[in-house]
């Protein structure tokens, strides 16, 4: 039996060199768990695709490569936790991607329990791009989304600032260890996100930035999210890598158009030509999400009032936020109402009601009908 607990085994596997996330996932699947990987011999390890002599040597000699006690001490001192794939707080969407990390470091609250949208873009941006990113982020945050970005200078920083200005949720995925501020000029923003949102990183403490680490970071940014929005990007910018990951992961992809003579908009225009949805405001994201959720076929009721398939209708959770509960109550007893009608009934603004209805759709508690009205599934 391995001397490592499951949590510690995940932590070690995440930190070892020569082993990528895909290979780590194969190892865990092959040996039936993270601790069991460290019980395997060299020959058995190298039977796993992607594990060569360097990788097997790293696993067998992990004690010389990674001081786990020191890492845990530094984590405790910094107020950092390591969320593993077996933890309930590990995001569902991230778990689904092929290259899902076995775990990630987190400093701050668990803000990933809300639906997430990424806003990314160029480090060399325009005033138009900065203003657009802030406006989109603030609008999404007010509707209850968690705004995800990479804390880089430019569009990323503007996205976090917009979410914070609205008092909403935001998460920064770092291309360094979670204890390193990069770029240095974002130190104040780094602290604000840690205090009001969350900093995330799959890299061990002390890991410095490099080209590879940023590319790895980008797959997590898109993997966490329902949708990815590119505000400004050149044709070869890092945001185009995030956009590619979004496409591979089956995420909604939006791009904000810009001036045709502006280099920082050339990447967005290319994405739009290649099939990304042109974005002009938050309503475009809401419409796309509503469209995908609203075309689900309605269950055919049986004589007992069920859904015809023997499965009971979902029950609203006891801890539903008061405003969501008020909106859901308007749809009781089979009522089918538009957002405007719900707004009148609850006294809440239409924009607010639209956001609440989206949250209830994502919770699978309401559905949008073909005529644009909403009805409860409970």
Q: Helices and strands, in N-to-C order?
A: HHHHHHHEHEEHEHEHEHEHEHEHHEHHEE
Number of domains: 3
Rg over C-alpha atoms, rounded to the nearest angstrom: 23 Å
User: What is the percentage of strand-forming residues?
Assistant: 5-15%
By DSSP, the count of extended strands is 12
Helix/sheet category: alpha/beta
Low-confidence stretches: 294-314
Largest sheet: 9 strands, mixed
Q: Look at the structure and give the mean pLDDT.
A: 88
Structural overview:
- It is a single chain.
- This protein is α/β, with parallel strands linked by helices and 378 residues long.
- Helices cover 45% and strands 12% of the residues.
- It contains 18 helices and twelve strands.
- Mean pLDDT is 88; it is low at 294-314.
- It has three domains: 1-66, DNA polymerase, domain 1, CATH 1.10.150.20; 94-290, Rossmann fold; 299-376, Winged helix-like DNA-binding domain superfamily/Winged helix DNA-binding domain (Arc Repressor Mutant, subunit A, Orthogonal Bundle).
- The termini are far apart.
Keywords, separated by commas or semicolons:
378 residues; alpha/beta; Arc Repressor Mutant, subunit A; 3 domains; three-stranded antiparallel beta sheet; 12% strand; globular
How are the SSEs ordered, and which strands pair?
Layout: H1 6-15, H2 21-31, H3 34-37, H4 42-45, H5 53-60, H6 62-65, H7 68-78, E1 81-84, H8 92-96, E2 103-108, E3 116-120, H9 127-142, E4 146-149, H10 155-165, E5 169-173, H11 187-196, E6 198-201, H12 211-223, E7 227-230, H13 238-248, E8 252-255, H14 266-273, E9 277-278, H15 282-294, H16 322-330, E10 336-337, H17 339-346, H18 350-362, E11 366-368, E12 374-376
Parallel strand pairs: 3-4, 3-7, 4-5, 5-6, 7-8, 8-9
Antiparallel strand pairs: 1-2, 2-6, 10-12, 11-12
Helix pairs in contact: 9-10, 10-11, 12-13, 15-18, 16-18, 17-18
